[in-house]
Amino acid sequence: MPNFYAKSILEKGYHCFNEIEDTLLTPLFKLTGFCKSIKDYGYRYDSNGDPLIQDCQKNNFAFYYTSPESFTLFRAFYWNHDRIQDKYVNYWGKVSSYFANNSYVVGFDPFNEPMPSWHGVLDALYEMWPGEMDDSELAPLYTRI
């Protein structure tokens, strides 16, 4: 997805759960490193406002998945905030149409490394239950694609 879609969503704010629960859980977040904002890593940024790749490579990529920015973007994607899912589905419609008759293409992975997202702590517990994220977020997305 183009970077400007992510930036437009993040400009409105970002949270791991929601504003109230994030505030209440801040001491736990600081203790565990969970919900650490990308801005808190002290990275340098390029002229486009993106962290430099060589700075990002200083940490295991998996840590970034627990950032409030990541959770917000996954949440926006699954719940179609700013019609981002609609735009993504349209993109895959074009890609699949283009390759539909290519005998060398056997399939595609429309969403690599999906991450659950939630609106609160209780919702997180529900989403982490085996199969729930697949049923409530991934299956509807894949059906649309």
Present the secondary structure layout.
Layout: H1 3-10, H2 19-32, H3 53-56, H4 68-79, H5 84-99, H6 121-128, H7 132-144
Summarize this structure briefly.
The chain is mainly alpha-helical and 145 residues long.
Give an account of the 3D structure.
- The protein has one domain.
- It has seven helices and no strands.
- With 145 residues, the chain is mostly helical.
As a percent range, the share of helical residues equals 40-55%
Tell me what portion of residues adopts beta-strand conformation: under 5%
Mean residue pLDDT: 92
Structural classification: mainly alpha
Order of helices and strands: HHHHHHH
Kindly report how far apart the N and C termini lie: 15 Å
Number of strands: 0
Whole-number total of structural domains: 1
Low-confidence stretches: none
Features of the shown structure:
mainly alpha
